[in-house]
Design a protein that fits this description.
Largest interface: A-C, 70 and 60 residues
Largest sheet of chain B: 2 strands, antiparallel
Shape of chain B: globular
Structural class of chain B: mainly alpha
Strand content of chain B: under 5%
Oligomer: heterotrimer
Chains: A alpha/beta (638), B mainly alpha (273), C alpha+beta (256)
CATH superfamily of the largest domain in chain C: Alpha-helical ferredoxin
Order of helices and strands of chain B: HEEHHHHHHH
Largest sheet of chain C: 5 strands, mixed
Strand order of the largest sheet of chain B: 1-2
CATH class of the largest domain in chain C: Mainly Alpha
Order of helices and strands of chain C: EEHEEEEEHHHHHHHHH
Distance between the termini of chain B: 51 Å
Helix content of chain B: 40-55%
Radius of gyration of chain B: 22 Å
Number of helices of chain C: 10
CATH architecture of the largest domain in chain C: Orthogonal Bundle
């Protein structure tokens, strides 16, 4: 293992989605030599799947909007479990982050007076989402990608090398965050194309790897979403919080089977689409929870009027936060009022003229036409819940995005926890990426520059990481001569387990069962083996990703079993109510000290932590009557 | 036409050293050769026909119809056409067919047209024969050097095509006479001319250069609302540029052929009124 | 409709060589070619290399050639083939092969770097940008590009002539030049950068002979040729082949 290539950088960003690229831009602009490392090609990150828009209270369409309203909506959406300081920073800084994109060449849809147009979305009081048709994520990624290219062009002009100050290592995977002297000292990586190992030494590492959706069977997430950052942080000693909260997007495609789970953007509803059951009824009116009763229309007429006159009418309940809509759909299907393929109907065809649909929802039109032979301008779509986003993630300091307890480790985007509480509002993800991506880049660069000397790399850790990565090639079956486990089979079983037993509606018994199954899968995964060689070998890559998925799945299952209430993206059939006492409780996952010795024993330990009280001036933004519904008795009196 | 079964060329293009080793020049299973073959056949047929008619120097006028190949007629050796497009700019020294003088303009317009370029590059030059079908040429420089760099003067042919189209419109108006030059009549030929001139205008105005000149070159449409609207209309036509190129090619040949039939006495123009 | 077994031929190999391998594999209702490739990975060839991400036609990763035509694996439905038909899947043939269906697309990233970036208008602060929808429509169409590089792959200029890769940026990046040239607020001209002239002089616009294969393969339906390349050629003609402009430049140069 001595022939390993090593490079020195100031900041290493793991992940090249919105958060990672924004962090890299900031770090480079602060003078740090920055490396970005990503599993896919540059510009292919999962951020491109974001469709609806970027939430930012610019007030271009409704001038009543401001950051306080955005903050309120975010806290309500997250059922007050959010790290309030993150929610505040997010709401305050989002407009600047969006405007900044324009100076880098982004072209958003416009209002009549030439400003950035904003659209309605679930849980947002005013039209707030800056968008480009229904391909906002693509615009975001492309803009950041092109900004990086422009910074590289600058370096080329000044230093003669495009990659002198900012380099993208594409199609490379990080398997370990390396440490020395108790701090981060670099990352251990392999190049997917050649299978070659290399080490990037850096005092600051920013994790921006996105989510964990690939642990679930029905998901809108791509293969990359294997919880790498979550697992890397755990293995480096950092805690994860709120892992029980997994968002199921209410509208994923349900048919044909091969596209099950692919996202149908919330903009469909924001622009006028309605949900109906097999009886043709707009069932969402029956599912408005008490905490939202005053905010949503009680009749179809009022809901319909709202699109044209939002100041004097209340919004239709189709635009409730995602967790509410997903649960409602689930309940309708269970009650036997579902569509032929086990979803419900989402209809725009009777609500908008065909040409308007094609203009405002071009990729949805295209997606259904191409993949399901459904013309959404003429017939209703069939949709059902799909695993979409994990609210939980690495516990970070709100202002600096620094991971708690591991100096030099930072996290931004979906992989960071806390910002969205128990449920994320649509559109808050892209703004989260930008706001905290920038903050992570800034503080990671400052941290690296402040450090008097580069931390040393512990050589034994490098050797251990290399041995770990090579294990699938020498894997053996349970008995001598038996075939090793097929990583694809293990992955499918894991997805089925999480989907069925820790899915949208949860029960204690099932989650205990899931933990047993996970233990079994861990044992089998230690024997996962692959054929062939190291050059672009997807079977090998999957074997390595299994470690991460199993770790993260265990976090989700343990935390979900522990939280005996229902809140946001965590719904317990056996504990259906939202309990005010749980509001202040965060469940923190850490790697168990003895983890690894015996794969059958659990690797995660849970700790319950009470969060800081919400700052009084922020609390004052809410009506007392509303707070009573969420906050515990002692918080109100404090 | 290549079938994709001949031995691979070595070390170029899709058979280059670094590319995936696949012997056939293409793996298409559809009838990819059909479109270029039809294009080549159609263009060849027109070339043969128009060459014959352009050099014929005969049977191009049958009152009140003048063949679009010979209009305007710019030499002294033209047949006299009552109130017709006889302009003896070239005088008496021109001894060849007068069609040659004027056909240069529509010919140049079509030769440099962005659609016809695609058609003959694919159909005649096999560059490429079809998408993802390797072309047979060793070297390729496209339109970067002489003579093909001259394709960039398309817009001047477009300017020239406008007066030609205007004159053909004038001819169509003249076709509302009978053989004694009495106004207010219509024959089958008038209908043929009408259809032809509509298609000629549609083709001419749907030209990419036209689209550029009318508005495409602007950076801020919002400051030029009229040109923006015109640009939109031309854009709609432009989307059908290929279809218009073919039907107008066919209609102009048909109009000429109709005049030939009537002028040569093979056919009597049925008078509608 | 029901499940059936289809005959597939998939190219396997690397720089050292390789060839088409035959597979018989199950196909179910509503599946796309990428599903079948995944089934091959899970059941018959665990190390079959393929790039993919979103599986919804939005990221442009799974570009390959199916029955000789450049396409996205995830957007090609099995129902477009008859049950008897052999489906042949190969890597992109314009780029160096890495392994199996994966090719080295670094050509495209190198070309992306050669196009000068958006130049923000001086004196306009962030948040002060005002643009009309009709003015951003054209560039927005080009920004729908998912960078699948199918247009780069199918373009005969580089597909059939490796040596042209030096001089020719390819449809994707000429379209990028057009996008910036049509951007209502791009201030490149103020910095002395003439995007129209560079399109021809530096990015090889003249190599394009507008045979429209790029438009044919674009999975986003972008009218690359009609809306980007030809307008760019016309804009270059404005600069270089318009006698009035040419004369004006001559005179100005002499004065300067």
């Amino acid at each position: 293992m001595t022939e390993l290539e090593r490079q020195q950088w100031d900041v290493v960003v793991v992940g090249a989605g919105g958060a990672g690229l924004r962090a890299a831009i900031e770090a480079r602009e602060r003078g740090a030599r920055t490396a970005v490392i990503c599993k896919s090609l540059f510009g292919k990150a999962h951020t491109v799947m974001a469709e609806g828009g970027i939430a930012a209270s610019m007030g271009n369409v409704n001038s009543n909007d401001n950051w306080q309203v955005h903050f309120r909506d975010t806290m309500r959406g997250g059922k007050f479990l959010n790290q309030w300081r993150m929610a505040e920073l997010h709401a305050r800084e989002a407009p600047d982050r969006v405007w900044e994109l324009e100076t880098w060449g982004a072209l958003f849809d416009r209002t009549k007076d030439g400003r950035i147009s904003q659209r309605n979305f679930g849980g947002h009081e005013y039209p707030r989402l800056a968008h480009v048709g229904d391909r906002t994520g693509l615009e975001l990624i492309r803009t950041l990608q092109q900004k990086i290219v422009s910074l590289q062009q600058e370096d080329e002009r000044e230093l003669g090398d495009y990659e002198a100050g900012l380099k993208v290592f594409q199609e490379c995977t990080v398997t370990r965050v390396l440490k020395g002297d108790g701090r981060v000292s670099g990352v251990f990586c392999y190049e997917r194309e050649s299978g070659r190992f290399f080490v990037l030494e850096a005092p600051s590492v920013i994790l921006a790897t996105g989510g964990i959706g690939k642990s679930f069977k029905v998901t809108s997430n791509s293969w990359e979403y294997t919880g790498d950052g979550h697992a890397l942080a755990l293995l480096a000693g950092a805690p994860l919080i709120n892992m029980e909260f997994v968002q199921f997007h209410p509208t994923g495609m349900v048919w044909p089977p091969s596209v099950k789970g692919i996202l149908v953007t919330e903009s469909v509803r924001g622009d006028g689409g309605v949900l109906r059951n097999s009886e043709g009824k707009r069932f969402m009116f029956d599912y408005v929870p008490d905490v939202f009763k005053e905010k949503y229309a009680q009749s179809e007429d009022e809901g319909d009027r709202w699109y044209d006159d939002p100041d004097h009418n209340r919004r239709p309940p189709e635009l409730l936060p995602r967790d509410e809509v997903a649960r409602a759909i689930n309940a309708e299907v269970k009650a036997g009022r579902g569509s032929p393929h086990g979803g419900v109907f989402l209809d725009v065809s009777t609500r908008m003229p065909a040409d308007v649909i094609r203009r405002r929802l071009p990729s949805m039109y295209h997606q259904f036409k191409e993949l399901a032979d459904v013309d959404i301008t003429a017939e209703a779509m069939e949709v059902g819940p799909t695993c979409h986003y994990v609210m939980g993630g690495i516990a970070v300091e709100s202002d600096t995005a620094a991971a708690l307890g591991v100096p030099g480790l930072f996290a931004a985007g979906e992989v960071a926890g806390g910002m969205h509480g128990s449920n994320r509002l649509g559109g808050n993800s892209l703004s989260d990426l930008l706001v905290f991506g920038r903050r992570a880049g800034l503080h990671a660069a400052e941290y690296a520059q402040r450090l008097p000397a580069r931390p040393t790399v512990d050589e034994t850790r490098i050797d251990a990481a290399a041995a770990e990565a090579l294990r699938p090639f020498s894997a053996e079956g349970p008995a001598d001569g038996a075939a090793p486990e097929n990583p694809y089979t293990l992955h499918q079983e894991l997805q089925q387990t999480m989907n069925d037993l820790v899915g949208i509606i949860r029960r204690a018994g099932e989650m205990e069962q899931a933990l047993e199954k996970l233990a079994e899968l861990r044992v089998r995964a230690s024997r996962a083996g692959v054929e062939g060689h190291r050059q672009f070998n997807p079977g090998w890559h999957l074997s390595l990703d299994l470690r991460n998925m199993l770790l993260v799945s265990e976090c989700v299952a343990r935390a979900a079993l522990e939280r005996t209430e229902s809140r946001g993206g965590h719904t317990r059939e056996d504990c259906p109510g939202m309990e005010r006492e749980w509001r202040r409780a965060n469940l923190v996952c850490r790697l168990a000290p003895a983890a690894g010795a015996d794969p059958a024993s659990g690797r995660i330990e849970l700790e319950r932590k009470t969060t800081d009280p919400i700052r009084p001036d922020l609390l004052a933004l809410f009506e007392k009557e509303e707070l009573v519904k969420y906050l515990a008795e002692e918080e109100l009196t404090e | 036409m290549a079938t994709g079964t001949e031995p691979p060329q070595v070390n170029t293009g899709v058979h280059g050293d670094t590319r995936a080793t696949i012997a056939p020049r293409h793996l298409r299973t559809d009838r990819w050769w059909l479109a270029p073959a039809l294009t080549a056949a159609g263009l060849l047929a027109f070339i043969v026909y128009s060459t014959w008619r352009a050099f014929a120097n005969d049977d191009y006028y049958a009152a009140p119809y003048v063949s679009p190949f010979y209009s305007p007629c710019l030499a002294e050796n033209c047949q006299p056409m009552h109130a017709g497009p006889n302009w003896e700019i070239f005088g008496s020294w021109w001894g060849l067919s007068p069609a040659l003088l004027i056909l240069i303009f529509p010919l140049g317009f079509r030769l440099t047209c962005y659609y016809y370029r695609k058609a003959y590059y694919r159909g005649f030059w096999a560059s490429p024969p079809a998408c993802a079908v390797a072309e047979p040429h060793k070297k390729y420089t496209g339109e970067t050097r002489f003579p093909l760099i001259l394709q960039n003067i398309h817009r001047y042919f477009f300017y020239a095509a406008l007066p030609v189209a205007a004159i053909l419109t004038y001819d169509t108006v003249l076709a509302f006479r009978d053989e004694n030059y009495e106004w207010g009549h219509m024959g089958l030929g008038t209908l043929v001319f009408l259809v032809n001139i509509v298609l000629i205008w549609a083709y001419t105005l749907s030209c990419h250069s036209c689209r550029h000149i009318i508005g495409g070159r602007l950076r801020h449409f919002s400051e030029h609302p009229v040109r923006y609207r015109l640009w939109g209309w031309v854009g709609k036509l432009n989307a059908r540029h290929m279809q218009l190129a073919w039907v107008s090619l066919f209609s102009v040949a048909l109009a000429d052929f109709y005049v030939y039939l009537v002028a040569s006495g093979a056919f009597d123009d049925p008078r509608l009124f | 409709m029901s499940a059936y077994r289809a005959h597939f031929r998939v190219w396997r190999g690397d720089q050292e060589g390789g060839g088409l391998e035959d597979f018989t594999v199950e196909v179910n209702d509503g599946e796309v070619v990428l599903d079948i490739i995944h089934r091959l990975q899970a059941t018959q060839a665990s190390d079959l290399a393929v790039r993919w991400n979103c599986k919804a036609g939005k990221c442009g990763s799974c570009s390959a050639e199916i029955n000789g035509r450049p396409r996205l694996l995830c957007m090609t439905r099995m129902s477009v083939f008859s049950r008897e038909e052999t489906v042949t899947v190969t890597p992109l043939r314009a780029f160096p092969v890495v392994r199996d269906l994966v090719t080295d697309v670094s050509f495209n990233y190198a070309k992306a770097r050669e196009v000068p970036s958006f130049v923000p208008p001086p004196g306009v602060a962030a948040g002060e940008y005002r643009m009309q929808q009709m003015d951003v429509d054209r560039s927005q169409e080009f920004r729908k590009c998912i960078e699948c590089f199918l247009c780069q792959d199918t373009c005969h200029v580089v597909r059939d002539h490796e040596e042209n890769k030096q001089a020719f940026a390819g449809p994707r990046f000429l379209m990028r030049v057009a996008e910036l040239d049509m951007h209502p607020l791009d201030a490149a001209a103020e910095t002395g950068l003439d995007r129209r002239a560079t399109a021809q002089d530096e990015h090889g616009l003249g190599y394009c002979n507008i045979t429209k294969c790029c438009t044919e393969v674009c999975p986003e339906g972008i009218k690359i040729t009609d809306n980007a390349l030809i307008p760019l050629k016309e804009r270059a003609a404005d600069r270089k082949y318009d006698p009035l402009v040419w004369l004006g430049n001559k005179i100005r140069r002499r004065e300067g």
